[in-house]
Structures are given as structure tokens and as C-alpha cells.
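In response to reviewer comment 3 from the previous cycle, which asked for concrete evidence that the modeling workflow produces usable outputs, we include below a single protein chain processed end to end. The sequence was submitted unchanged, and the resulting C-alpha cells are shown without manual editing.
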Amino acid sequence: ANVAMNARKRHPLADRALVDWDLLVLMEPLTLAGALAGGFANKIAPELVITVLLVVLLYLTSERTVKKGLKLYAKESAAFSAMADARVALDDAERQEETKGLLDDDGGEPKGVDDEKRAALGRILAEERRAFPPDKVAVLAGMFVLTVAMNLAKGGGAFPSPFGIECGTASYWALTAAMFGALVAISLAVRAYLVKRTETKDACGYAYVEGDFHWDSSTTLKYPCVCFFAGVCAGLFGIGGGIVNGPLMLELGVLPPVAGATTACMILLTSTTAATTFLTFGLVQLDYAKRLFWVGVGATAVGQLLMTRLVKKTGRQSYV
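The workflow returned the following C-alpha cells.
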């Protein structure tokens, strides 16, 4: 429900989708790998340990999120006050002169860019305008199908493997290692793609806005590793990895609406992957799951509608 409702929304500062697909496709592979590892940990860890760790995690993430929200609220208040005190009307001639000095005749692309670079920039902007970029959706969908299929192929306590694989055997651990290896390989491929894409953006004079990442060899390695921990939490506690990745994005300066929309996509993929692990181990009570699924869909829809109206009415993103 969250992903479907966010699909119609646009970035507050640019003509692009609200979801940061570059960020999503980079962070999700190792988040899924962490979810698989967390699922194994959930199977062997005592319930008391899991409960205590979950409480600690929720406290820490809630504290950081509240502090970040209050800081952003104060920043917004200062900005509103400054706008009220310093608002000066410009006549049409001055507006046109200022705009002409900043933009070229093609509607916002920097001057001095040759035709080849202009074409590359146009392709990047056209892709970013799409709500669901096909290549990135294909990577995420393929990764999701791969992990779920291999997870189910191994079987578990709830049902036997369709290929006769038994838990704890060499073939079982070989398939598990293959899953992790595939996710790491995808993560490295996406890392190389984003570094090259950022270089292309810089060469074309791409206009970054607040909250955008400038990917390099360091950030594309550091942040996904943190996401592995988020995935472990998802698998260990049965939560969406976004409960950790969401506050992380806010700490990194991602705009709250963008962080919320991107996190929603992460939760959809990560929690579903973790759920298949629990299913294979026979840890899911389906009677509860069926009812709580619809409760979650309804609560998400109501929360989305109320938050959207609140942000539009107040102009404050800090509420997110």
C-alpha cells in the first residue's frame, strides 16, 4: 500500500520520482543478505535475547529520529521566519532576466555543455522522471525472485525441499553461500554503475538538489555495509529493514519524504524475503498473519493520507 501510494508522488525539489532509486538499488542487495543471515540467527537465538535487543534497537532508532525531526523542525521555523521578514516582490522583467542568466533555452540545462553531454544529461533526466525506472526495477525484481526461489528451494522445518535438499547438508550450505555470493556480486555491480553514473552527471553539469548523494568509491562501499546490519535486524526481529535504514538516510541528509518513500520499497522487499525464511523454518502463524496483513494495509493507507495532508497544510517535512 505504501509503495503504491508513493508511486504517484514527486520529489519536492526536482522533477523526478519521490523514491531515490539509485539509493534503493545500492542498499537493497546487502540488506537482503542481512535479512537472510538474521533469519538464521532468529532460529537459534533465545526469545529473551531477541526481545531485549529489539527494545534496545527501537529505543536507539526512535531517539535518533526524534532528534533529527526536532532539528529539522527548528530549521524550517527559522526559514519560514526569514521568508516572512525578507520577502521582496520582483517584477516580471527582473524575474525573466535572472532566469535567462541561469538557464538556457532548453529549460534548465547548463550552458556550455556540448551536444553529446547534453544528450547524456537528457537521458539521465528522462529516466529520473519515471516513477518506476525499468532497469532498476528489473534488478530489484530479479534479486528478489532469486533470493525467494533459492530460499524455498532449500526447504526447512515447515516443508521439505522440492529438490531433496536437507537442512545442514553440504548442498544446503552451498545453496546458502550461493545466495550470499549472488547478492554481493549484484551489490558490487551496482556500486560500479553508480560511480560511473555520478562521473557522467558531473561531466554533464547535472544540477544536484538538497538531499542528493554524490556517489564515489567510498560512499558506495560504506553505506551498503551499514545496510547489511539493517537487514540482519529485519531477519532477526521480523521487522522491515527500513526501521534502521530510514533513520540512517535522515542522518545522511536525505529529505524526509524521499527517505520515507525509499524506505517503504526497502521494507516491501526485505520483509517479504525475511518472511519466506520464517515460512521455511515453520515460524509463521498463518491465522495471525492473514488478519494482520489487512490491518497493516489499512493502517498504512490511513497513515499515508493523513501525513500527506499534514505536510501539504503546514509545509513542514519534519513531521515525516
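The longest helix spans residues 47-86. We consider this sufficient to address the reviewer's concern, and the full set will be provided in the supplementary archive.
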